TrEMBL record:
It comes from Kaistella montana. GO terms for molecular function: glutamate-1-semialdehyde 2,1-aminomutase activity. This is Glutamate-1-semialdehyde 2,1-aminomutase. Its main location: cytoplasm. PROSITE patterns: AA_TRANSFER_CLASS_3. Homodimer. The modification N6-(pyridoxal phosphate)lysine is found at K267. The gene is hemL. Pathway: Porphyrin-containing compound metabolism; protoporphyrin-IX biosynthesis; 5-aminolevulinate from L-glutamyl-tRNA(Glu): step 2/2.
Length: 427
C-alpha cells in the first residue's frame, strides 16, 4: 500500500498545526510511521487520501456505532442544516433529545448538553464540588476524563501513549486536589477517604476503562465505590463518554446495575458531531446556573445540527431491538477467533472485552489496571497494528486504546480481518 498523498499532507500539516494533528494520538507516535489522512467513510469502511480503503475498528473513537455516514443520520443533518446551523437560543430539539435520554437511562432526571466529553467531565466535577462544598476528587490511574487540568494526572489514552502523565501547565495547586488510586483497588480508595476525611467531593471513574486499553471492573469494584461514596458523603461520577449508549442504551449504570450520582456522556451521544453531556438527579442538577449557583455555559451547547445528529442516532439505536446483541456477537466472534489464531501462533496475549469494546494486550498475565496494561508488549502491538494497517484494517494506533465495533461490521469484514491476522508474523 502506498501512502504518498498522506505523507505529503502530513508534511504540510506539520508546518501549520502543532505536530501536524489536532489530537495527539492521531500522529501515530506510539506505533510509528506516517499518520493516514482519511477523506471519506461509509458503513464499515474508511478511504484515505491515496484511495486505500480500510475496515474501521475506531469508528471515530466510538460515535459511529451504526457505521459511518448512516443514510438516515445524513438525511437528518442535511434537512436540519436548511433551517439554520445555530441560533444561540433554546430550541424544541434540545428538549426532545433530553427527554429521550432521561426517560430511557436509569437514575437521571435532568441533562445538560455541552460540546465535548472534556467539557462534560470538567463541568460534572465543578458541580460535584459546588454541591458538596468539598475540593478533592479521586481518579484512577489510566482513566481519561478529557484534558481539563484536574484530570491530567496519570491519565491514560494519548497521555499514556506519550509517557508524560503529568502535563506541564497543570499547576501544583490543581494537582493537589486530585487523589489517585489504582483501578480495581477499592481498598486504596477506602484509604484515601480515611486520610482525607470530609474533603472528597467525588470519585470519577470509567465504569469500563477504555483509555488504557479495555479494562473491566472486577470484584465488585463499582459496587464498592458506590458504598464508599455513600459512607463518606461523596458523589460517584460515572464517566460514560465511552460506555454510554454503547454497552447498552442505559450505559454501564444499566449493565452493572450500579447507580451513579452524576453521569457524563460524549462520543455516541453526538452521532459524529461534537456533543457531550452530563446528567443527574434533580437535587444535584438544580445547583447548576441559571437555577443554582454553579456556573456552566456554552455558545454552541445544544447546537441544532449536533442535536439532530445525536437525536437521530439515539432514535435509530432505540428502534433496533437487536443492536446491542448483534454488536456483542460481532465482538465475541472477533474475540474468540483472534484468540484462537494467536494461540496457534504461540503469541502470548489477553483480550479484554465488554460488549463491543475490546482490546488485545500482548501479555501473559491478566490486565486489570494501568500498570499491568503498561507492562504488556507494546512493540508487539505496534507490529500487529502495522500488519493490519498494511492489509486494509484500521485499529486504534496505540496499545492503550480500545477498539470500537460498529453495526456495519458484518461477516465479510470479520472474515477479512481474521484472514489478515492469520498471516501475522511477529518479527
Ligand atoms: C473520549 C473521552 C473523554 C473526552 O471526550 P472528548 O470529546 O475527547 O473531550 C472523556 N472521558 C472518556 C472516558 C473518554 O473516552
Amino acid at each position: 500500500m502506498l501512502y504518498q498523498r498522506s505523507s505529503a499532507l502530513f508534511d504540510e500539516a506539520y508546518q501549520y498545526i502543532p505536530g501536524g494533528v489536532n489530537s495527539p494520538v492521531r500522529a501515530f507516535k506510539s506505533v510509528g510511521g506516517v499518520p493516514i489522512f482519511m477523506k471519506s467513510a461509509k458503513g464499515a469502511y474508511m478511504t484515505d487520501a491515496d484511495d486505500n480503503t480500510y475496515i474501521d475498528y475506531i469508528n471515530s473513537w466510538g460515535p459511529a456505532i451504526l457505521g459511518h455516514t448512516h443514510p438516515e443520520v445524513l438525511e437528518a443533518i442535511q434537512k436540519q442544516a436548511e433551517s439554520g446551523f445555530s441560533f444561540g437560543t433554546p430550541t424544541e430539539l434540545e428538549t426532545e433529545i433530553a427527554k429521550l435520554i432521561v426517560k430511557n437511562v436509569p437514575n437521571i432526571d435532568q441533562i445538560r448538553m455541552v460540546s465535548s466529553g472534556t467539557e462534560a467531565c470538567m463541568s460534572a466535577i465543578r458541580l460535584a464540588r459546588g454541591f458538596t462544598g468539598r475540593d478533592k476528587i479521586i481518579k484512577f490511574e489510566g482513566c481519561y476524563h478529557g484534558h481539563s487540568d484536574s484530570f491530567l494526572i496519570k491519565a491514560g489514552s494519548g497521555a499514556a501513549t506519550f509517557g508524560n502523565p503529568n502535563s506541564p501547565g497543570v499547576t501544583a495547586g490543581t494537582a493537589k486536589d486530585t487523589l489517585l488510586a489504582r483501578y480495581n483497588d477499592a481498598e486504596q480508595v477506602a484509604d484515601l477517604f480515611r486520610h482525607n476525611p470530609g474533603e472528597i467531593a467525588a470519585i470519577i471513574v470509567e465504569p469500563v476503562a477504555g483509555n488504557m486499553g479495555c479494562v473491566l471492573p472486577e470484584n465488585n469494584f463499582l459496587q464498592n465505590l458506590r458504598k464508599l461514596c455513600d459512607e463518606n458523603g461523596a458523589l460517584l461520577i460515572f464517566d460514560e463518554v465511552m460506555t454510554g449508549f454503547r454497552l447498552a442504551f442505559g450505559g454501564a449504570q444499566e449493565v452493572f446495575n450500579v447507580k451513579a450520582d452524576l453521569v457524563t456522556y460524549g462520543k455516541v451521544i453526538g452521532g459524529g458531531l461534537p456533543v457531550g453531556a452530563f446528567a443527574g438527579r434533580n437535587e444535584i442538577m438544580d445547583h447548576l446556573a441559571p437555577k443554582g449557583g454553579v456556573y456552566q455555559a456554552g455558545t454552541l451547547s445544544g447546537n441544532p445540527l449536533a442535536m439532530r445528529a445525536g437525536l437521530t442516532t439515539l432514535e435509530l439505536i432505540r428502534k433496533d431491538e437487536n443492536l446491542y446483541q448483534n454488536l456483542n456477537k460481532t465482538a465475541e466472534t472477533l474475540d474468540f477467533e483472534i484468540g484462537k489464531i494467536l494461540n496457534s501462533k504461540n503469541i502470548e496475549h489477553r483480550i479484554n472485552r465488554k460488549g463491543s469494546m475490546m482490546s488485545i494486550f500482548f501479555h501473559v498475565n491478566a490486565v486489570s489496571n494501568f500498570e499491568e496494561a503498561a507492562n504488556a508488549n507494546h512493540s508487539l502491538f505496534n507490529n500487529f497494528f502495522h500488519h493490519l494497517l498494511a492489509n486494509g484494517i484500521y485499529l486504534p494506533p496505540s496499545g492503550f486504546e480500545t477498539w470500537f465495533i460498529s453495526a456495519a461490521i458484518k461477516e465479510n469484514e470479520i472474515d477479512r480481518t481474521l484472514e489478515v491476522i492469520r498471516k501475522f508474523e511477529y518479527s
